[in-house]
Write a structure and sequence with these properties.
The complex is a heterodimer of chains A (206) and B (126). Chain A has 8 helices and 8 strands; from the N terminus they run H-H-H-H-E-E-H-H-E-E-E-E-H-H-E-E. Chain A is an alpha+beta fold and 206 residues long. In chain A, strand 3 and strand 4 form a beta hairpin. Helix content of chain B is 87%, strand content 0%. Chain B has 5 helices and no strands. Classes of the chains: A alpha+beta (206), B mainly alpha (126). Chains A and B meet through helix 3 of A and helix 1 of B.
Chain lengths: 206, 126
Amino acid sequence: MILSFVRTVILYFAVILSMRVMGKRQIGELQPFELVVTLMLSDLAAVPMQNTGIPLLSGLLPIVALLILEIVFSYVSLKSKKLRTVIIGRPSIIIRDGAPVEAEMRRLRVNIDDLLEELRKKDMESVEEVAIAILETDGTLSAFPKSGGPLPYTLISDGRIITKNMEKCGLSEKALQKMLGGTAPKDVFLATYTKEGGLSVQKKEK
Amino acid sequence: MRTFVIALLLLSLICGGLSLYGVYLDRESEALLSALSPLYDATIKEDWAHAESLLSALEALLEEKTPRLAVFTDHDILDDINETAARARGYAKCREAPECIAEIETLRAMIEHIPRREALTFYNIF
């Protein structure tokens, strides 16, 4: 009995430490790979906690392995947008200008009842009053009413120019460069643009 | 970046540690097996005095190695090995050669299995 108690205390601290190292993202809304890590973590800790015949290291080692994988994947997805898309996916627009985007809803297997339910949770009564609704990578729905004004386009994200959004705004790279002044796009962490408000730039920290 | 580097260092440390652990298990298993061979010969020859002293030496060796092996090896397997050694000792005391030999062979199989079950093989992975 005392053995189970001591092992539980050790594994408890190991899991707490892992969650702390993995960061706050793990506790809030989970990305698919974060959910996998969290589910596996609890199971890995539970088995050696109950079965004292299993060496404690058999439980601790996989926890450390998951922790390492989580850190490596988070870091790689931070650096590479392509890998981020593969691992995390990308947000999908499922309502545009008050109309559901049926093809995207079919692809994501989201039915209209689920969509209306999510909108009701956001105090929106119908699809018509939504300017744009985005199904985020963590599964939550972000909806913006038509009355709220236009959404800004992200033109530069982590030093990379998003040409697709540039085309939507009708801007050329030269025009963007002119708006940035002396700042090179690779030194910009985030640049957003609206026709009314112009360009908003946040430079990278040195 | 620092966390990432630490994670990679930890990963290489684990990989290195696990390789060394494989070597360690091989060595410990070999040491135990080499103690079994003379015991087997003495039992076949029914040299019981010698067999009993060899069994005592084997049990002392097991007592010495078990705590370190228990860090990585299933405790049930180590308990089984100790129980089989105790049974072999009992049969040696009663001068029961066939049963004693059977227990020694079981011990051999169990000890050989320790590094084998931890080896990175297709069979073990799947």
